[in-house]
Amino acid sequence: MSHLHWSERPFSLLSTPTKTDDVAESFYKSAVDMALIHNIFIRALNSIYNHAPLVSRSGTTKDKTDFLTFVRAWHETIHAHHTGEELFYFPALEAASGSPGLMSTNVAQHEAFHAGLDALHTYALNSLAAPSTFDSTELLGIIDSFAPALTAHLHDEIPTLIEMGRRFPSVDATKIDEEHAQKMLATVNKLIFVPLFLSNHDNEFEGGKWKGVFPPTPRIVTVLTKWALYWPYRGAWRFSACTFDQELKKEMLF
């Protein structure tokens, strides 16, 4: 078995789905994008999980503050992602397919880990107020309480989209995705969402076959993030799995 990068463990990344002729192209693209987005969340979560004991044991007050800010940013980003799905994305898919309740299983999966995510957010905020109290054992215990349900959901959503591509080939999933992205960007804190998103995507994933395809952002956005958007929380992005050029970091911070 090949050695896994620290951003690939303990929670496994998703493989992108294989294209088959019976799946509508727009849904296949949607499933690929969703798998790559979910991998961003998983890489960042793995970074949190692996750095936590090291920061707790050896980190300075600044290290702990930056790390806990990264934890908070991860929570706020994945919370925004799931809120956007429930408020717009899932209802839009159900309406376009004429299938009310089609995504109810996915919504129920969200409910299975929301309490754990909220507990993580509360712990991060409380520890930010008193960094010396940060205890990695408590943090990892919270993550362990919700990670199985969260990662199962992140994996399960991909075959759901593929199956929709078989059942509803006339639905324009690309249009729904674009409208969803616009609504998301209009509501999120871009100083957190965009840097976390771009600094936890690996351009060389699966041999680099998605490089230049994902993320679907203009080059100017990447440049702006690298030189401007990252600045307010620059210490936090030290804990990202990748650089702002979307290259995996070889070493952890400690």
Automatic annotation (TrEMBL):
Indicate the segments forming the Hemerythrin-like domain, all copies: 37-157
Which branch of life, at top level?
Eukaryota
Matches recorded under InterPro entries: Dimeric_xanthone_biosynth, Hemerythrin-like
Which Pfam families is this protein grouped with? Hemerythrin (PF01814)
Q: Which PANTHER family match?
A: EXPRESSED PROTEIN, HEMERYTHRIN-LIKE DOMAIN-CONTAINING PROTEIN
Q: What's the protein here called? A: Hemerythrin-like domain-containing protein
